Amino acid sequence: MDCRNCINKLCYINKNCNPSWLEYVESHKTRKYYSAESLVFSAGDIVAGIYVICSGGAKIIMNNSEEGKRIIRFGGKGQVLGHRGLSSEMVYSVSAITIENTELAYIPNEVFFKLLKENPD
After folding, report:
1. Who's near 37: CB < 8 A, 6+ residues apart?
2. Do residues 105 and 77 lie in contact, with contact meaning Cβ atoms separated by under 8 Å?
3. In the prediction, which pLDDT does 76 show?
4. Which residue of 16, 66, 90, 112 shows the fewest CB atoms closer than 10 Å?
5. In Å, how far are 38, 46, 49, 92 from 89, measured between CA atoms?
6. Where are the beta strands (DSSP E) in the chain?
């Protein structure tokens, strides 16, 4: 999906990014396609970027030694995955698994941080 003409007004990037920056996003993001039940990232992985769901969906899972795996939320079209890892440690604290065929936009950290700085909304 092309950010410059995306019709999903719930998308975090589309909703909060100045239109003049959508070209920048488009030229720096990577599209990734996952089949259902595919691992996007795992708790403990180093955070190199964030993901925006273009289509499909994912479940966010926390591994708890006492309870096992626990779904903490579902993400759908336009939502961000991986933001919980943006901390001083830069490690994902949760895992993300697709629940259906899913298209994700992957935005590397340096691009995402620049977007945050230049688009404070």
Report:
1. 97, 98, 99
2. no
3. 92
4. 66
5. 25, 9, 14, 9
6. 30-34, 39-41, 49-55, 58-64, 68-75, 80-81, 95-98, 102-108
Count, residues in the chain: 121
Helix (H) or strand (E) holding 51: strand 49-55
Give Cα separations from 46 to 12, 41, 84, 102 (angstroms): 22, 9, 12, 22
- State how far the Cα of 104 lies from the Cα of 56, in Å rounded to an integer: 9
Residue type, 73: R
Determine what percent of the chain is predicted with pLDDT higher than 90.
38
The pLDDT of residue 85: 56
Assigned token pair, 19: 């239109």
pTM: 0.83
- Average pLDDT (84-107) is 86
Pick the closest to residue 52 from 17, 91, 90 (CA basis): 17
CA 77 vs. chain centroid, Å, equals: 10
Distance in angstroms (rounded) separating the CA atoms of residues 15 and 112? 15
